[in-house]
Amino acid sequence: MKRHTWLLFSIALIFIISGCSFSQITDSVLAKSTDTPTPQPTNTATPTATATAIPPTSTPEPSNTPKPTQVPRVTLDEYEKALRDAGYSSIGFTDGSGKMWTLSNPFENTYTMNSGQVQMEVLNSVKSRLAHMEEKFTVMDGLFPADFMAQLRKENEAYAGTVGAGVSGKATNPYGPVPGDFWQYRSAYYNITDTTIGVYDVRFALFFQQWTCPGEYICTFTSFGNQQFSGQASFVFYEVTIWLKK
Q: Residue 238: is it exposed, middle or buried by C-beta count within 10 angstroms (0-12/13-18/19+)?
């Protein structure tokens, strides 16, 4: 199942009037349509649609050499406990494969998969992505070795220096739109960099997602603070993935 949801800072909230469209996220996180928006008339008979949270797809673990077994590895349970201790709340995926963890920003979540995979996402704003990812790294400081965290931060900054505000190059694992899909959802990874830090496989990537709300509907992102939109909405996320002990 492909990743169908997770999205944008409350003050960067998107209301796209039917006929307008979102382009790739820029430093301000959204680009305006060149068309003049026409206000949506208030009509109690207007149908609504709800975008139900669907879990992210667990990306395959990179094929690397075996890691030293004598080095203790952080478990998924330990990581999730650290999130709870930091004040995060969780929602289980409908298929039972993992959880979505939210703190204060409904668009910048952490996802834990039962397979041991952890995905940390922030909006790909050049001005804020490193600072916002650092907030997620601080949750890990009391759990992972100091040398691992130092190297993770170094690799993260190096990767950020190679990517801009939008996606570029060849898409990896492109998905959709599927015929008959109400949302005409599509997604893809870009600019993937795989590395190994200590005993952990780590992946840096940009993740693009797009939804289309049919013209006769006003649609709602239930996983992103119940924000409403019409027309098209698209986002680019800056993502760091770590494979923990299952």
A: buried
